[in-house]
Design brief:
Elements (H helix, E strand, L loop, with lengths): L2 E6 L4 E6 L2 E7 L2 H4 L27 H14 L1 H30 L6 E7 L6 H12 L10 E4 L4 E7 L5 H10 L2 E7 L14 H13 L3 E7 L5 H15 L8 E4 L3 H13 L13 E4 L1 E8 L4 E11 L3 E2 L4 E3 L3 E3 L1 E7 L24 E5 L27 H16 L10 H4 L5 H4 L17 E2 L2 E2 H8 L31 H20 L3 E2 L7 H4 L33 H17 L5 E2 L4 E10 H10 L5 E5 L7 E10 L13 E5 L2 E5 L2 E3 L7 E5 L7 E9 L6 E6 L8 E11 L4 E16 L2 E5 L5 H6 L5 E3 L4 E8 L4 E6 L9 E8 L9
Parallel strand pairs: 4-6, 4-7, 7-8, 8-9, 20-32, 28-32
Antiparallel strand pairs: 1-2, 2-3, 5-6, 10-12, 10-23, 11-12, 12-22, 13-21, 14-15, 14-23, 16-17, 16-22, 18-19, 24-29, 24-31, 25-26, 25-30, 27-28, 27-29, 30-31, 32-33, 32-37, 33-36, 34-35, 34-37, 35-36
Helix pairs in contact: 5-6
Length: 821
């Protein structure tokens, strides 16, 4: 027989059973003996006791799949939706990549534009161009725009060589290039081991290409030694020397034999080219043929004809176009022509009407719709009577006559011999006592009625030196006149005068860096008239400034947006709809077409035809509103190769994308913590500034290349590079000046300061403005002392005798309206 004994610790009962039969139970007080709870010992760790037990916790592959299926069923709906969405995104990206590849290498795509650029002057680009065209086809196009069709590579290509030393031509070719092939010569390696693969012009153009945006790039290495070992070493040394100048994706190819060029063309056929983002936002045509039709010689206008392939996007006949070097114009029609270089020529084509001008077949002609065509609106036409008041009533005229009679009856103390006309300009004593009663908000903005026999308008015109038109002596008196502009009237100046002006400009630039914004109060002009447009600010960051206050006359000619970001989004969406739709008034990319640009001045068209012999002429389609004038702001940096000072309002040529125009910018800081920005008199090297100009509206992102013309015979040189930042006429740019004075007598926190002003009336006029010292003290003007402009000041701490007392004044600055559009 088997006896079993079981104890229940939870209830304290003992069960006794024999052969499975319960005999009885005894309840004990076990909980009391164990202190209220049962003892639980820590189990022994036997997980990794042996090698075989290490895999016990692992589930089998079959069980894992079963578990995954069970978990999948828990969130089946949400996960299925997420998987479907990710699959849809992948399919869209795959389809977009396939469409982009077909657009680049398909039969309907335009020929690939390959630009050969020599990194040094000793590179022979002509032989390389001939070798590439010979490999592609035995027949090529004209000499200016040679296009070859290759059935072996299934590719069409146009090969251009950039003229070394011509910066404008190189820039225009880089803007439209699908592939830039930089050519280096291995003969640049010297005996001492040094190398000069890139000369000064090559380095300058390379930095400009980076600022514009590099497309796909390759590097050709020419003139390698014939010996195999030396050839390998020379190629390796050239690659290691130039690899830091180009993107990581750039490949290096030897290009001495046709076999090496054949390898490059075979890889180019399969390569997906990349382009700058700004270039794909607008349709453009790189003209292969340029002509002009003069309908009426008396009007001085003609029709400009540009023939070439349409790139990037659909081009509408109703939109405006910008011709490089000519300006913005409307289209009168577009001819769709038969492709002169088809990749797959058709057999037995139908005969079509041959065009009389270029002997090519016209497939279809697109005419603009007058109701849909974008108007060529550049400036707003202001109404000169919009701000005029109504004609005064009879009661107002009678009241004015009564006031005039009372003024005549009032007795005034006048100098002997004063006529009635002279007495009208002399102020009363009560008016003179009110000089210091103006509050800080109106400081420097209100002119008094006149003084010393000069009317307020005459005084304003006589002492209005704040037009900032080329000041050279900025640290002296801040007097700026048009005659001080350097190299503006260079034809009438001798060589010594030009050198002297350049020296004065450099001295002014150095003085502006050492003592920024400091000016001296003139002795012969009252400070309240000389600085009448200036005002004081309690805090540059937090003080308010109305952006609509006292705007110049040029602001009536420009356009502004209520919400620029929203307008940009709407315009880009409209351009995208134009690409997706199949309208009868648009030309798709890859089409060979001729643009008829109407009402172009004959002189401008003649210059464009001459420029077409050295560089491609680009016609770029403009987005909505891009012909209207506004205030554009650019993030700009001085180019490293330009060492001359660049003063505000100097004339520069701005190359913005495909467009170019002449402007006179002002420079300012980019203050992210305030709505006000401080004007800079010079573009300082080594840091970015903001350049503001009057120019046609453009939607960012767009690159900027600013060039400066040294002379009529000399070519333009690169002065600065940057990008378009925003379009905002309400951006507040403040010109700051600092008036300085010196303590004459100091008594702890009080001091008598002189040489800041020279008349007691000026002290009363600027009394509400706060003063500060270079050692960190702040104070205010208490009262004038004497008759020579000295004043008593109170500071927030003990003033030192060697300290300098300063006063900051501000006025809003505006760009200069361009003389050439």
């Amino acid at each position: 027989q088997s006896l079993s004994l079981s104890i229940s610790l939870s209830t304290g009962a003992i069960f006794v059973a024999v052969d499975g039969c319960l005999l009885g139970s005894v309840i004990l007080e076990v909980k009391a003996a164990m202190g209220g709870r049962a003892q639980v010992n820590k189990p022994h760790k036997t997980r990794f006791a042996s090698k075989s037990s290490r895999n016990v916790h692992k589930t089998s592959l079959k069980d894992k799949h079963q578990k995954a299926h069970s978990e999948r069923n828990l969130g089946k709906g949400a996960r299925a939706a997420r998987v479907q969405r990710n699959k849809m995104v992948r399919d869209q990206k795959r389809a977009a990549a396939l469409n982009a590849k077909r657009a680049q290498s398909g039969s309907t795509s335009p020929p690939r534009l390959i630009v050969l650029f020599g990194l040094s002057a000793n590179v022979d680009l002509g032989s390389l161009q001939r070798d590439l065209l010979a490999l592609l086809s035995s027949q090529s196009g004209d000499e200016l725009f040679p296009t070859a069709v290759s059935s072996e590579y299934k590719m069409r290509a146009t090969v251009l060589k950039a003229p070394h030393g011509d910066l404008s031509s190189c820039m225009e070719m880089a803007k439209v290039a699908d592939l830039i092939a930089f050519v280096a010569s291995a003969n640049s390696l010297y005996e001492d081991g040094s190398s000069d693969y890139i000369d000064s012009f090559g380095a300058q153009c390379l930095s400009v290409f980076r600022a514009i945006g590099l497309p796909s790039t390759v590097v050709f290495i020419r003139d390698l030694p014939s010996d195999l070992k030396r050839r390998h070493e020379s190629k390796k040394f050239c690659t290691s020397s130039l690899s830091s100048e180009f993107p990581e994706s750039c490949k290096f190819f030897p290009a001495d034999t046709k076999e090496e060029l054949h390898k490059f063309l075979w890889l180019l056929k399969e390569q997906t080219l990349t382009f700058p983002h700004w270039r794909n936002e607008r349709a453009y045509v790189a003209a292969q043929k340029v002509d002009m039709i003069d309908h009426d010689s008396s009007s001085g206008k003609c029709t400009l004809l540009l023939t070439g392939y349409v790139h990037a996007r659909n081009l509408s006949v109703n939109q405006l176009v910008h011709v490089s070097g000519a300006g913005d114009y409307q289209l009168c029609k577009i001819d769709l022509l038969n492709d002169p270089c088809p990749l797959h020529p058709r057999k037995g084509q139908d005969s079509m009407d041959a065009d009389d001008v270029h002997d090519v077949q016209v497939i279809r002609t697109i005419m603009p719709d007058g109701s849909k065509q974008e108007p060529l609106l550049v400036e707003n036409i202001p109404d000169p009577l919009a701000g005029e008041q109504t004609w005064p009533t009879e009661a107002e005229m009678a009241e004015a006559e009564e006031d005039q009679k009372q003024k005549k009856l009032k007795k005034r103390r006048l100098p002997p011999g004063t006529s009635e006309y002279q007495a009208a300009w002399i102020l009363d004593d009560s008016d003179e006592d009110n000089f210091g009663s103006c509050d800080e908000e109106n400081e420097g903005m209100v002119l008094d009625d006149g003084e010393n026999g000069i009317s307020s308008n005459e005084a304003f015109n006589k002492y209005d030196f704040d037009e900032d038109q080329g000041s050279l002596d900025l640290g002296g008196s801040d007097i700026e006149t048009e005659t001080d502009s350097v190299m503006v009237d260079g034809e009438n100046m001798t060589r010594e005068q030009i050198e002297d002006d350049i020296k004065r400009l450099k001295d002014a630039h150095a003085e502006d860096e050492e003592f920024p914004d400091e000016v001296d109060t003139p002795l012969d002009v009252p400070a309240r008239k000389r600085f009448a447009k200036y005002r004081g600010l309690k805090s540059f960051r937090t003080s308010s400034w109305d952006p609509k206050e006292s705007l110049p006359q040029e602001y009536a000619r420009i356009f502004a947006f209520d919400n620029f970001a929203r307008t940009k989004k709407h315009v880009l969406a409209k351009a995208l709809e134009l690409d997706k739709g199949s309208n009868d008034d648009t030309v798709s990319p890859g089409t060979y077409a001729r643009l008829y640009i109407k009402e172009v001045p004959s002189t401008v068209a003649s210059k464009v035809c001459l420029r077409a012999n050295t560089m491609p002429i680009v016609a770029c389609g403009l987005l909505q509103h891009e012909s209207k004038m506004s205030v554009l702001h650019f993030s700009i940096k001085k180019h490293d190769s330009y060492t001359e000072p660049i003063k505000a309002k100097d004339e520069l040529t701005f190359h913005v994308g495909f467009r170019q125009f002449i402007a006179r910018p002002i420079f300012s800081t980019d203050n992210i913590s305030s709505d006000k920005h401080k004007m800079e008199r010079f573009l300082h090297p080594g840091r970015f500034s903001v350049a503001s100009i009057y120019a046609p509206i453009s939607f960012p992102p767009l690159p900027l290349i600013a060039t400066k013309n040294v002379g009529d015979a000399s070519p333009s040189i690169v002065a600065a590079v940057g990008s378009l930042k925003s379009v905002d006429p309400d951006r507040i740019i403040l010109k700051k000046i600092i008036l300085t004075g010196y303590p004459q007598r100091v008594s702890k926190v009080k001091a008598t300061v002189r040489y800041m002003f020279h008349q007691p009336e000026d002290v009363r006029w600027f009394k509400p403005v706060e003063v500060w010292t270079k050692c960190g003290r702040r104070g205010r003007i208490k009262e004038p002392v004497g008759t020579h402009g000295a004043m008593k000041c109170v500071f927030n701490g003990v003033l030192q005798q060697h300290d300098t007392v300063c006063m900051s004044l501000y006025k809003r600055a505006y760009p200069k309206w361009p003389e050439h559009k």
